[in-house]
Amino acid sequence: xxxxxxxxxxxxxxxxxxxxxxxxxxxxxxxxxxxxxxxxxxxxxxxxxxxxxxxxxxxxxxxxxxxxxxxxxxxxxxxxxxxxxxxxxxxxxxxxxxxxxxxxxxxxxxxxxxxxxxxxxxxxxxxxxxxxxxxxxxxxxxxxxxxxxxxxx
Length: 153
Known about the structure:
By secondary structure, the protein is mainly alpha-helical. Helix content is 83%, strand content 0%. It contains six helices and no strands. It is globular. It starts with 7 loop residues before the first helix and ends with a helix.
């Protein structure tokens, strides 16, 4: 065989290696993108969403007065949002936090539709999409969380 002719085995092995390297690099980029998304969502819930409720910003107070729930519910929801934001950053809690925040957004959507006549109803729906992605992508950690909880019980 001459140098210009490649054997079928070597010709087939090179693309397989390139595909494996490409898949690894793609997986790494996907993990980085997912982590960046988690940080952005956590910042949103920790600063833009929970902070006005926890400091009793007048706009948050007015909204909860219109709902008829009062300040107790406002502080509770603010604390739940802050806990969810922190949970998105803790590896063992990421999937559970994303699921819990999704459930909170379902409630927010219902309130927006019934009390505020759909005024900002798109916001909770838009937030559910990345939260569902995070919950699904990090679902493997639920098994580890259960293992930890069973050991402590």
